[in-house]
Design goal:
The protein is mainly beta. It is built from 1 helix and 14 strands, in the order βββαβββββββββββ. The strands form 5 sheets. It has a 5-stranded mixed β-sheet with strand order 1-8-7-3-5. It has a 3-stranded antiparallel β-sheet with strand order 2-6-4. A two-stranded antiparallel ribbon has the order 9-10. β12 and β13 form a beta hairpin. The chain is rod-shaped, with a radius of gyration of 28 Å.
């Protein structure tokens, strides 16, 4: 079994393993490329010629998710076809997931705020998924202008400030 663990949708993950010839004669084998393609897996090398007894071959496996993939647990069986011998199966497992945050409130209500004063409203972000979630806050800066006296204009400062501006929440963290 080769378990990739959590894989974020639209990304890839790499694992390595080795197979050892524990028999008494050299063996040759290969992995089915068509099945690899269907499983979004690539195995390198995809074939081995005459692996000598008591020697090993290292393999690198890359599992790639599609950007439009659904969140789900994937399992694939890929056969190891030993020339002149039995067929072995390797099970590849991956949990396709998407990072996600929940906020303690969907709207921020500052209620009444007196002119030239500040009011702070707190919200809590929570990572409800099994992978790290990186977040950041950004706005389109739109200048705010107020009219003073005979039509003169004065730029005002930012009306809203967010702190911190970004962060990383581990799974289950608030």
């Amino acid at each position: 079994m080769c378990d990739f663990g959590n894989v974020i949708v639209g990304s890839s993950k790499k694992k390595s393993f080795r197979l050892t010839n524990v028999g008494k004669i050299p063996v040759s084998f290969n992995f089915d490329k068509k099945l690899q393609s269907q499983a979004n897996i690539s195995i390198e090398p995809d074939k081995v010629q005459k692996l000598m007894p008591n020697t090993s071959q290292f393999f690198t496996v890359v599992y790639t998710t599609r950007k439009q993939a659904k969140q789900k647990r994937e399992k694939f069986l890929i056969p190891v076809d030993v020339r002149g011998g039995p067929q072995y199966m390797i099970e590849f497992i991956a949990n396709q997931t998407i990072p996600e945050l929940t906020m303690s409130s969907e709207t921020l209500d500052f209620e009444q705020v007196c002119v030239n004063t500040r009011k702070t409203v707190k919200i809590r972000l929570e990572n409800t998924k099994e992978v790290n979630c990186e977040w950041w806050f950004h706005t389109k800066p739109e200048p705010t202008v107020s009219v003073i006296g005979g039509g003169a204009k004065k730029e005002e400062g930012e009306r809203y400030q967010v702190w911190p501006h970004n962060g990383l929440l581990l799974p289950g963290q608030r």
